[in-house]
Amino acid sequence: MPRFPKPPEGTWTEHYPELGTEPVAYEDSISPAFHELERDAIFRRAWLNLGRVEQLPKTGSYFTKELAVAKASIIIVRDRDGEVRAFHNICRHRGNKLVWNDFPREETQGVARQFVCKYHGWRYGLDGTLNHVQQESEFFDLDKSCHGLVPVHCDVWAGFIFVNLAREPKQSLREFLGPMITALEGYPFDRMTERFGYRTEVHANWKLFMDAFAEFYHAPILHAKQSRERYAAAGQKLGFEAPYYSIDGPHRLVSTSGVRNWEMGDDAVKPSEVLTRGGLFGPWDKPDLGEMPRGVNPGRCKPWGLDSFQLFPNFAILIWSQGWYLTYHYWPTSYNAHIFEGNVYFLPARTARERIAHEMTAATFKEFALQDGNTLEATQISLETRAVDRFHLNDQEILLRHLHKVVGDWVDDYRLAKGAVA
Amino acid sequence: MLPATFAELETLAPTWCLATEAERWRQRHLSTMAELTAFYDAFFPRLEGAIEYCNEFPLDDLPADVANLLRLIHSLVMVSMAIEIFRQPKTIDASDAVLDRIREPTP
Asked: A26, A69, A158, B21: which has the fewest C-beta neighbours closer than 10 Å?
């Protein structure tokens, strides 16, 4: 018997019949040729989140983002009107990378009045205008007004900065995000400016790590040795069920029911958690965030633990009932490697006690993520043997099925469109 | 380095009053279990009092010795998993996985 009610069809997966229930192939995660298609079909067509507006606190604040998967380097900057703009990071003169420090492949950030190319001193305003050409009279028919920085489509939703590398995006950012995601508007992302940032390179296809964080079926097993014995044993016996799943266009959501560590016996909780009042689920003392927007906990789970919103293609927002949030980004660097970025956000600590609870939460997040990361290279290596090519996914793994289907659909669309042109 | 009330922890301070997670992570992995246990056993009984002590000061203006005490608490957070759960310095079942903290609030 399921612990939580399932949809009338009997399972979450059958509630979305387009997903099917048959075993799935993982060729999309081990094929270099498929990855080449993904680069154009997905990463040069979908809206990609590059960060938050708090990273650009004032006029001239900028950061760069290296998007190896899309063969692009982007400058994001706040211009003199306060608008967030994005440009390709390339000088119009002879193609030097415009904004970088010592190493051209490393990202950078800062505050600038203008951007000056290190090579020949061409200068660009914060709005991308080419303002100055060194020895301009030596050039032939150079019209400065048509040689500003090449703009990239850029839009902001709920403080999250997105770009789209398509010449003309098929959808506006809002249309792309759709009703499930935009219903999060009003969540106090803008107030949660205390940020712990994490980064690593993972030797596995980007979708395999998204898969790892898209199901909690693994949690009682893989993470058994993260908890005290009594808690771990209870988890393994019961297994894991999520009370709510939802799919909206290319995006997906799983909610979990709450675990209240502080209500469990001392033999199920770590002694240091009791004193620091923090842990995997967040600070034990929940800040008052006011009324939540309707998009939070849309399944109205009670108790409610967290919502994991996975935004296509490579971005996740996890909203925790204890009043904090996490983001994940997965940036492919090849068919079998990617950069993982995790950010943990809290309301700024007002007291040492709050700061310590945040530290315990962030430290615990890292321990769990290390275990999640560890299985991925092993999965990648063994998938690449192709000894098995069909894999069964259960109902708690519905979101994996959806991610791989949407990726396949976008690649098919792109192939068809290209075929039509050719 | 520490407030006088915590004088008995002074010998631990040079090793464990570390400002960043990267330093604390490194120190945990450079230490033997005996060293981690010695730190944990010495500090854990005073943890509650240390948190209370730090809490009396404005977080954005901690005197240097209180800032050190907070760093010592953050180090206890760092080693608590190794002592209370893993019984080894390294995260269990994490093989050679790496996850670097590249930004964090101050203090």
From this structure: A158
